[in-house]
Amino acid sequence: MMFMTDSQKPADVKKDWIVVDATDVSLGRLASVMAFRLRGKHKASFTPHVDGGDNIIIINAEKVRLTGHKLHNHTFYWHTGYPGGIKSEVAKDTLERHPERLVERAVKRMLPRTKLGRQQFKNLHVYAGAEHPHGAQKPTEIKLS
Fold it and tell me: According to DSSP H, which parts of the chain are helical?
């Protein structure tokens, strides 16, 4: 008997559209499940070098939950490239001004830092409110508790 491992080809990939409501879901739990699905690891046909994940729509990003003191103590830093150009922002301010960036950053940091990871990240669509423009794709809803 000979058993062969199937290696998925990019032409064989079937991508589904999924909607996830982020209302009262912990940010870390949401990000880890979404990164898992973006990579396609939930499918039996998972192949590490092929973008076999789903297209994911996250709605109500403004209602995501941060546990503990992270809302007030977690600080994000970035540098503008100019001398003395370090900037910072607390998670509470990011959640108020651009809630979708908070969710995108959490998911992006759980994906591989490669060309494939950047390609998989493009399949994530995050919206602050309950409305999204992807109704024509007929997405299925997933519940996270």
Answer: 27-39, 70-73, 91-97, 99-108, 115-121
pLDDT at 145: 73
pLDDT tens sequence across 93-102: 999 999 999 9
Q: Cβ(9)–Cβ(50) under 8 Å?
A: yes
Structural domains in the chain, sorted by start: 16-142 (3.90.1180.10)
- Global pTM reads 0.92
Amino acid type, 98: H
CA proximity to 71, closest of 97, 95, 87: 95
Q: Name the percent of the chain lying above pLDDT 70.
A: 100
C-alpha torsion angle, residues 120, 93, 131, 29 (rounded to 10): 50
